[in-house]
Design a protein that fits this description.
- The structure is a single chain.
- This protein is an alpha/beta fold.
- The two termini are 23 Å apart.
């Protein structure tokens, strides 16, 4: 935690969490996808090159958490090189790297290259698992999707013994399509995927391609969160990264309850400040739910700083306040908590509880 606080102070007015949508290509057709329009219009047509990632990264002083997204990131054969470039220039402490897990032969080799080339960065791989096999495959639009995730999991587990910086987690995107299948999914995760370091819930958000996805029961969601909170433990008591992120998620879910009741996310939102998104063409977005561009790196010499302090960004920030914008996007909430000392006692207390359960 002290190291994290030091890094947060060093970033100063720069975003702590930078997300790169590295591709719009995807083999899935997820029913709760909010990036479908981009994927339909720009699949593999105009992606940033490695040279462009070099130019972008040279102008970013420090990243605390590097987020990778898409599309399916592992459809880029040079994904490991992109991450290595950003690691070399921006020194991220963590890379959060999601995959639908359909291509074990693509995922495992690239993950190993990243873990080996970036020893001072936690390589946090998340496999999407949204329900029992038939439910998962229906949601993701992938025949044998669950089966392929299991194969990818089995290909990745041996890396846990080879690389101390490697973490493997399951990510469940909670939506109307799977809210009634959580109990059997918990059983499957416990019995068939015992090597996961942790399990996280990500609530469907943004302009999803199917509005039905958002018609879920918040009560069920928070009951599941409470259950996970009561049993959360790390595989190793020395795994401070997993213990901290689990505790942070508890604090974030408590804050989320308040936000949903008060509908005042605009008062604390750090989208465009603590969190920023750069898509596969170099367009910059402060917010995933609104998905409103505020700049284009290809047009300004790849200078992110210029976009961050531009008039477009100022207008976006004013818009959030004036329109009393509210949503449930988790990343700005998590960053608000990390940058607000009043939440630290809660995080530390939760870390202590998780560590106590994690003792051998």
């Amino acid at each position: 935690m002290p190291r994290l606080l030091t890094r947060l102070l060093k970033t100063g007015r720069w975003p702590s969490y930078v997300i790169f949508f590295v591709t719009a290509r995807c083999n899935a057709s997820c029913k709760m996808c909010f990036y479908k329009e981009n994927m339909d219009s720009n699949a593999a047509k105009d992606e940033l090159t490695l040279d462009e990632y070099e130019k972008i990264s040279r102008q970013i002083p420090l990243i605390n958490v590097l987020g990778i997204s898409g599309g399916e990131p592992f459809l880029r054969q040079d994904l490991h090189q992109i991450v290595e470039i950003l690691y070399r220039h921006c020194s991220p402490a963590v890379v959060d790297l999601p995959t639908n897990g359909f291509f074990p032969d693509k995922v495992a080799p690239q993950v190993e290259k990243i873990a080996r080339a970036c020893p001072d960065m936690v390589v946090d791989i998340q496999l999407s698992l949204d329900g029992p096999p038939e439910v998962h495959d229906h949601i993701r639009g992938l025949k044998d999707g669950f089966k392929r995730v299991r194969e990818t999991y089995r290909a990745l587990v041996p890396l846990k013994n080879r690389y101390r910086n490697f973490r493997l987690k399951a990510c469940v995107v909670y939506s109307a399509y799977n809210q009634d299948y959580m109990e059997p999914l918990f059983d499957i995760l416990e019995n068939e995927f015992p090597a996961f370091d942790r399990i996280v819930f990500s609530v469907a958000h943004g302009s999803v391609c199917n509005a039905e996805a958002m018609r879920f029961d918040w009560g069920k969601y928070f009951r599941l969160c409470d259950r996970m909170r009561s049993i959360a433990r790390a595989r190793r008591i020395t795994d401070v990264h997993s213990i901290f992120t689990m505790a942070l998620r508890v604090a974030k879910n408590d804050l989320l309850k308040d936000i949903l009741e008060r509908k005042d996310m605009h008062k604390i939102c750090r989208a465009g400040q603590a969190v920023i998104v750069i898509n596969e063409t170099g367009a910059v977005f402060p917010c995933e739910p609104l998905w409103q561009p505020v700049g284009q790196l290809r047009a300004n010499g790849y200078d992110l700083k210029q976009v961050l302090f531009s008039e477009e960004m100022k207008r976006f920030r004013r818009q959030i306040k004036q329109e009393a914008c509210t949503c449930h996007w988790g990343l700005p909430m998590s960053n608000t908590i990390m940058l607000s000392p009043r939440y630290y006692p809660k995080i530390l207390a939760e870390m202590a509880r998780i560590a106590w359960r994690s003792r051998k």
